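Quick one, tokens below. Sequence please?
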């Protein structure tokens, strides 16, 4: 009996037009272009300025492009997973808004919250649905309007994040596709990277707003250390499990949080820099969108049978990796 696998058959994205440069950030906080570029690799990021547009707006556009790329109609989709930490509402799920707006009338959907590992966890979940035979076509979206939770008076975080969305269509195949995945969570460090208020622990009050508790808080140095170890460890874990060496890997598709974290991961994997997808310079950290945005930017360079390692680390703490053999 042949193995049932999931493969990525289409990729789409949406990026807002507005470009927020390091130079412009110098007007809001005490920072400078040289510091931001040398510490993070970021030169600019995109911001969804329109006040009546939110995460679902970007997700829908990315989804429609992915469907077109795959040659799949919205009615064929069985399930929609939207990875995001900036949903339009707590409920209904952003996936429900996407389902309606793309016309995926046969799909169920839900949001998945795993911060910067969100897309990777969503892709793993979509894969399990297909491997189990419960779904044939799944839309996996990573979308975040980070500007809605970024404190533009906090120089330690506002320089990092940007808005964007990426989507993939996952389809059943008996050939190459997603071979293996690893997912980790460590809830011990819930306050290392989080949004203190807005949830049921600290519902919105005058006090929470005054104390700027609805914005991202991050202990940057600690997250940096954990992310550098975590992304490299999990990438090596999946390579070892599948008997892969650096020579066997065609591409590392890393979460884009900091160029230095990506470089350290690639070094531990034994990869040359030309095998690493890096677009953090243009988009910053778009949280759940970084990995599909990379796949989109590099899709014309991907060849059948290429071994890809997708790897991410984020709030939770969460981290994971996926090994896939490219086949469209
Ligand atoms: O995707 C989710 C996971 N998130 C991450 O992976 C982010 C991980 N963390 C990081 O990427 C880095 O820790 C940052 C980019 C956030 C910070 O870089 P760093 O090299 O760890 O800097 P630092 O926090 O150690 O700060 C060094 C100095 C400090 O000044 P003093 O204390 O040495 O005088 C900061 O106050 O840089 C200062 N600083 C800044 N200076 C100019 C912090 N932010 C800025 C800024 N511009 N924007």
């Amino acid at each position: 009996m042949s193995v049932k696998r999931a493969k990525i058959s289409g990729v789409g994205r949406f990026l807002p037009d507005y470009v927020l440069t390091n130079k412009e950030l110098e007007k809001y906080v005490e920072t400078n272009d040289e510091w931001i570029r040398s510490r993070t690799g970021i030169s600019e990021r995109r911001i969804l300025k329109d006040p009546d547009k939110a995460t679902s707006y970007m997700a829908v556009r990315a989804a429609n492009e992915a469907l077109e790329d795959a040659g799949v109609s919205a009615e064929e989709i069985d399930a929609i997973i939207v990875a995001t930490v900036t949903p339009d509402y707590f409920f209904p799920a952003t996936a429900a808004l996407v389902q309606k707006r793309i016309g995926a009338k046969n799909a169920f959907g839900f949001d998945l919250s795993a911060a910067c590992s969100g897309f990777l966890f969503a892709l793993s979940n979509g894969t399990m649905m297909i491997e189990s035979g419960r779904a044939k076509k799944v839309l996996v979206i990573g979308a975040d309007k980070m500007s809605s939770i970024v404190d533009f008076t906090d120089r330690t975080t506002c320089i990092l994040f940007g808005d964007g969305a990426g989507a993939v269509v996952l389809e059943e195949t008996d050939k190459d596709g997603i071979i293996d995945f690893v997912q980790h969570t460590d809830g011990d460090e819930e306050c290392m990277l989080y949004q203190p208020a807005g949830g049921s622990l600290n519902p919105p009050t005058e006090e929470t707003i005054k104390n700027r508790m609805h914005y991202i808080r991050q202990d940057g140095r600690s997250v940096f250390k954990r992310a550098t170890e975590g992304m490299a460890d999990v990438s090596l874990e999946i390579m070892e499990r599948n008997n892969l060496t650096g020579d066997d890997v065609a591409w590392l598709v890393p979460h884009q949080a900091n160029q230095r974290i990506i470089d350290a991961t690639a070094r531990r994997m034994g990869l040359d820099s030309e095998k690493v997808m890096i677009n953090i310079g243009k988009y910053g950290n778009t949280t759940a969108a970084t990995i599909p945005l990379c796949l989109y930017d590099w899709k014309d360079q991907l060849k059948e049978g290429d071994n890809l390692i997708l790897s991410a680390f984020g709030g939770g703490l969460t981290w994971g990796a996926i090994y896939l053999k490219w086949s469209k």
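Residues 31, 35, 39-40, 116, 155-156, 159, 193, 220-221, 223-224, 227, 257-258, 261, 285, 314 surround oxa(dethia)-CoA (CB under 6 Å). Residues 35 and 216 are 21 Å apart (CA to CA).
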